[in-house]
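Case study: UvrD-like helicase C-terminal domain-containing protein.
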Amino acid sequence: MVLPAAYVTEHVELGYAVTSHRAQGLTTDTAHVVVATSMPRENFYVAMTRGREANTAYVAIDRPDVAHVGPRAGDDPEVSGRSILYGILQHVGAELSAHETLAAEQDAWGSVAQLAAEYETLAAAAQHDRWVAVVKGSWLTPAQADAVVESDAFGPLAAELRRAEAHHYDVAQLLARVVVARRFEDAQDIAAVLHARVAGALARDAAAGRSRRSPRLIAGLIPPALGPMDPAMHQALAERSNLIESRAAAVLDAALLAGEPWTRALGAAPHGSAAAAWRHSGCTVAAYRDRYAIVGISPLGAVPGSTAQKLDAARARAALEAAQRLAASRNEFSAPTRPASLEFARHLPSR
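Here is what the predicted structure looks like once written out:
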């Protein structure tokens, strides 16, 4: 592009792009700011207050794709300039005071992420002997059963059995069914094979509509540890379960009180009997956000990467859709109000 010399002489001045750190203390007629997701809010404030007449932000909603690989698994398909700006405003770059640091640490240790990790660890220990007995009571040979228990995949298998039990399966029958489904001659890790078979059986039954009962889940996400166990372990698990439920409710209440943008996706809370169900669904979404540190405007954040998060994301999405249906039914089936003119006429004295 070639600009006329007269125009350049009259309207163009030489300028340089600078970082927000370098821009501190500077003042210009207009400021044009390139905003990236990694920018903390302090830098954003500095950059957006340099211009006397105007300050314009150009928000980059994609990441550099130098390898030309296209969208990646971590990219949020619902990202927008608004959601990025919201995330920047939540991103504190300044050093925290001692009090703020303590509060942040306490919040982290009380998060669903921390409590769920503690629950999973306790559940694995509390149910270990039970799952060993279930494995040895299946149709595996003694050598195969010992190999399963000693495998690194025994933990994931136990977690999958716990998930199956939360979905009302008889886990002993389920494991026996997948054991006899196919032989293990070529299997390098029988525990890993069984884990895949159990997960596949649950997925097929769900797709076929065979599982009609609602699963028993803590905060709508975490399968509880059921069955016989040491009383001390049972108490510790019950305490973590209550803390997770309370934390999810607190996160939801705080978000609603602050009017956080993601809560609008839940719809307006209905009245009457539907209110409790709507709140339960909202707590599930709040628990998911707290477990995976989601702070953006999108209720469920970016596309999950791990298998565990994908399962939780599916539960959270189902809860979100349930809340939306309940909110919609509030408007659709709410009792019509009597027009004010008719109400006034009803109280007029008869002649």
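For the exam, be able to explain this: Residues 231-258 form the longest helix (28 residues).
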